[in-house]
Every structure is written in C-alpha cells, then in structure tokens.
Amino acid sequence: QRLRTGPRLSAVKYDPKVKQRVLFVESKKTKK
User: Residue 3: inside a domain, yes or no?
Assistant: First the structure.
C-alpha cells in the first residue's frame, strides 16, 4: 500500500507561488 500511496503523495506538492497544491507529473522541480 505504501508503494501506491507513496509516489502519489510525493507527486502532490504545495507550491507557495501558486498558493495551491500542484501535481508534478514530470517531477522536474522535485528532481533536485
């Protein structure tokens, strides 16, 4: 279960710039 919810929750990050939760599909910002 953690393998399924892990990546999904990790993909959703809170961006202070847009003041909302955004889903990083390509995960470019989260890459490093």
Answer: yes
